[in-house]
Amino acid sequence: MKPHVVCIPGSVAPAAQRYAPLISLVGEAADIHLKDLEVYREPAPPDNYSIDEELDAIDRFADSKGIWHFHLVGYSGGGFISLAYAGTRPERVITLALFEPAQIPGKLSAEELVMFDSLEAKLRGLEGAEFMATFIREQLKPGVPMPPPPPPGPPSPEMQKRPAGIAALIRAFKAFQFDRTRFAELQFPVFLGYGDQTHEFEQLQASVLAWLFADIHVRRYAGIHHFVPADQIYTAAHVSALLDMWQRAERSAGELSLQ
Asked: What is the CATH number of the domain that holds 114?
């Protein structure tokens, strides 16, 4: 049986755009299921939006596909949601693959708190294009050029949702209650990738996750940052590493079922 993989995107690009290179390179080797964020389901996020909404929606999505156990992939904000899902529903997760999670659920360390409070303060009160430009700039290392601006003209209806959706996600990250020590109890494999041109908080988060998880492989990608095109992140080498993890985990699960 082919691996079933559920992919959760970040707060900017929708799942079909974020994971197009992954789907192309995986081909027939796995069944990829794309799950977009609930925060963008309506024109504006509800006042009571929470991470629990996203977690419950993943349950419903997987159930609708007829899959109980699956591999979970998360990018950026989808990385936070995937971590939260894996920590609260470990019985459903076979492996977890992350690229630059926006934040790690649970109580932040002093260093994490300084970095995320700084980002939130710089975004406070901004809207539209100014919000998005600051959001992008603050996640790059000093001296790394900004990605090309969007084409001229009004943003698409979906992109118009992004500033309010990103702000709602940041508030929901802070409100989500989770005990990080639960990660140490999880036995499934974890793959974490991050780029060496993204702000140093990704390196800090990599060290935190490496300490929290028992079975984690961390890989730093040269010349990559959070906002490069998706095909520069999900390269043949990156996807090959994910496929290898998925297939090894499937074999191990099969061997255990025969015991």
From this structure: 3.40.50.1820
